[in-house]
Amino acid sequence: MEKIRKAFMVLLAVCLLSAAAAAGGETYVEQGGQIPDGAVYQGYWKNAYLQILNNHSAAIHQYQNRTIRDMYFNGREYTIPCMPVRMQDLNGDGIPELLFLEAASGGARGDLYIYSGNGSSARCVLYVPGITRLDYDEMLGFSIYLSTDSGNTLVVEHYQYETPWILQFFMSGSGRYELLNYLTIRGDYSGEGYDLYYRNGMQVSGDVYYAVADSIQNGRYSTVSDYFRTDYSGYGLETTWESAVNTLGGQSGRNTPAPAGNTEVYGLTIDKLATRKGPGTQYDGGGTYSVKGQYIKVLAKAYDKRNGIWWVKCEIPYHGEIRVLWTGYKRFDKNTLSLDDLPEEFW
């Protein structure tokens, strides 16, 4: 029975390993490089990046609030914080691109977004789903770097023993990263066959595979992120959401107005908004609104002494009109909405 149990655990580990390794590369190819955020964010790149970070705040923080245990190095265990954001000039125009990782699929994986901006707008130029997994430890290695192979190209590489994958992109005339090479290996775990090598969906020999892979890897000239950090300072990219917001001139832990440049205050909702016509349950109800995950304009705050909680007054869009109602402050992501930003009303 013990032998059967061990064999089952080995098979399960292999299945998990294969799923983790294949997720990012195969999913990107299957989706045809589709970018879920097709918005064009108006404004100078710093203002546009602040809007983007605020719009993705909840999912970025879901990634950031994780820690990773790693036991590969020197037989010791390290607890590594997840760093979700980095700004680095990838295309050589003097303006840094915005890169971040956010948790997706119920927090089980980390998805990569890259945005590029200029003096008037910014937009997403690359999205790679599932470049790492967050639902189990030690199976997380990836690297992002610029490669001189075939020009100035970007590489996302996933290290997974016998089943790695490499995505190599080039910057197209449309300003988006387009796929140049997709390399992967299907490892033979039975010991009875051979590993299979693929380039852009076609099976190739091991010699061809490694010739292309070596050319890409040996051409690395600028590292964006590397899993194998010697100081264990962080897993992912470089810094936290709060630090990136501060660098861009925003306020850590507070919402940056959207659109940038005005004095209005917005907050990201984390639940449906159950409302009242005043700041407390003693006032008549105003209905419940399905606006979870949206930025809502917030006008004021009031303290409910009876229940010891803060309420906020919101402008809620409903069938083409705006309804001004009160809801509990707890229904907003506090990383995007600070009570300090709101005038107080006394009821």
Topology as a string of helices (H) and strands (E):
HEHHEEEEEEEEEEEEHEEHEEEEEE
Strand order of the largest sheet: 13-12-11-10-9-8-14
Uncertain runs are 1-22, 252-262
Q: What share of residues are in beta strands?
A: 35-45%
Main sheet characteristics? 7 strands, antiparallel
Q: DSSP helix count?
A: 5
Structure description:
With 347 residues, this protein is α+β, with helices and mostly antiparallel strands. The protein has 2 domains: 246 residues, no CATH class; 77 residues, SH3 type barrels. 20% of the residues lie in helices and 38% in strands. It is built from 5 helices and 21 strands. The strands form 5 sheets. It has a 7-stranded antiparallel sheet, with helices on both faces. The longest helix has 29 residues. It is elongated. It starts with a helix and ends in a 19-residue tail after the last strand. The N terminus is likely disordered.
Brief summary:
This protein is α+β, with helices and mostly antiparallel strands.
Helix and strand layout, with pairings?
Layout: H1 2-30, E1 40-42, H2 45-55, H3 57-64, E2 67-70, E3 78-83, E4 85-88, E5 97-104, E6 109-117, E7 121-133, E8 142-147, E9 153-158, E10 165-171, E11 177-186, E12 196-199, E13 202-204, H4 206-218, E14 220-226, E15 235-236, H5 241-247, E16 265-268, E17 273-276, E18 285-289, E19 295-304, E20 309-318, E21 321-328
Parallel strand pairs: 3-15
Antiparallel strand pairs: 1-7, 2-3, 4-5, 5-6, 6-7, 8-9, 8-14, 9-10, 10-11, 11-12, 12-13, 16-19, 17-18, 19-20, 20-21
